[in-house]
Target: ABC type multidrug transport system
Amino acid sequence: MFVAAITTAINAWLMQPVLDSIFFNKELTMLYIVPTFVVINSIVKGGAHFYQLSTMKKLGQKIVNDLQIRLYSHLIYADTKLLMEYPSGNLISRMTNDINAMRKSVSDLLTGAVQELCTLIGLVFLMFYQSKSLALIAVFIIPVAFYPMLKLGHKMRRVARKIQEGLSSFTVRLDETFQHISLVKSYCREEYEISRAKKVTDNVLSLYKKSAYIESAPSPMMEVLSSVAIAFIIWYGGSEVIDSKMSPGEFFSFITALIVTYKPLKSVTQLNTSLQEALSAAKRMFSLLDEKPTIFDDPRTPHSALKNFNIEFHDIHFSYKTGLKILDGFNLRIQEGTTVALVGSSGVGKTTVLQLLQRLYDPESGYITIGGQNITKMRLNDLRNEIALVSQEIALFDETIMDNIRYGKLEATQEEIVEAAVAAAAHDFIINLPEGYNTLIGQRGVKLSGGQRQRLAIARAMLKNSPVLLLDEATSALDSIAEKQVQEALDRLKKGRTTIVIAHRLSSIEGADMICVIANGRVAEYGSHQELISLNREYCKFYNQYKNITGMN
Ligand SMILES: Nc1ncnc2c1ncn2[C@@H]1O[C@H](COP(=O)(O)OP(=O)(O)OP(=O)(O)O)[C@@H](O)[C@H]1O
Ligand SMILES: [Mg+2]
Model:
């Protein structure tokens, strides 16, 4: 970097012997020495430049790569509550568009800024060496030039932020459209989606146009300012040479230095706009990195060996948004090894209870214990390893069936995986697929039917083999034959485990040891099926309605 800077200054300085020794004193030896020196100087300069460029570019990419994975790791551990605030497209955009804005700028800055600044300093030194008074005039232009640059820089940062937001909206549109492509098609909303996407891209385009003005301004501005300085110096320096206060060589060397200065100066001002873009992206990124999770696996917490798996909810109050209570004094005790069913109308908070137990959210007040241990005092991974969940919305990856089941236990053998699939009544449909366990199932398992997806999710939970089992509408998508098969498998699985089931099909919870009816954020009724029927209240009403609808007797 310094070599490159010094060689540039040397090139300018060489103008002095060219003029003074060759043109005026007609020294023949210098006629050979100076050109040879020019070539050697350029080779050194080229070598140094190459080494510096490649090293700095590599360094720049490494810095940005590290940031990217840091952000990813940070987000994956962030609070569920925070993550729910952002559409996934927004987060994707931060990890891609924003990072790429930084990738370009960091590498530009590292390769350009430092070198150009060094070169600038080298040239300024040379100018002072040649003529102090002229140099003072030339240096005066720098602050004059920098003021408008700073102004433009600020403007650029604002526009860059808006562009990043615009790109993020576009990613959100892309993400949503292609996630819900069947819906888009069945509602014939292609044109509507195109117009929505166009609105976003038009906005981004108008911002890019604005940024084109801002980005293009510094260079011509610098050009004008530099020529004013050069004109002035030709007038002033020329009169010094005429008065023989300065040799023509010194004067030309000075002018060359000044002209060469223009390039790094221009680059530095251009880098400023690039820097503003990076700063704006970095700001968006660090605003996420600054969000510290409130629920995390604290390594200082000792591991706890649970004596039993009794689960207790103590006076839980919880709301997702302030002012809208979901749980309001919820109390529940679940005896180890038993099955408790949660019943209640849609949106009453059943899934929320399961989320609180896994500490995806923490209650506002009240506490939950497992084996007598407050779950907030447990290592997060210890808690979650004890729990296997089949969630209401089945989450599958665009991988093979084998890998999707293996997610429940990464070190599982092939036999264990097949065993889990058999238990979940999934094995038969899997082996009938052309590629069996190696079938790729598409994003979120789109290449499978709803019931098949559900059985994979059950197999995954079976493989995890945890003492606490949470089944949230686990069999809702199955036909009655498959449901019977899976139900039998689940009954086997439930043996000896503490289980919480949620099901709208009351037939699948009748056999639960206890049934808990939730209403108004708390437990309204609690008891066995028979007890609640004889109580003849909410549950009995649900049950009779269900019987009428399904024609059950
Ligand atoms: N992430 C969230 N942010 C804000 N509100 C939420 C969120 N998740 C759920 N809710 C609200 O909390 C309430 C309880 O939701 P929950 O999913 O626990 O209901 P549920 O009893 O499982 O219903 P269902 O039987 O339909 O599955 C609902 O009224 C819902 O609107
Ligand atoms: Mg639910």
The chain has a mean pLDDT of 86. The domain at 2-289 is CATH 1.20.1560.10 (ABC transporter transmembrane region fold). Residues 350-351, 392, 472 surround magnesium ion (ligand 2) (CB under 6 Å). The first helix runs from residue 2 to 13.
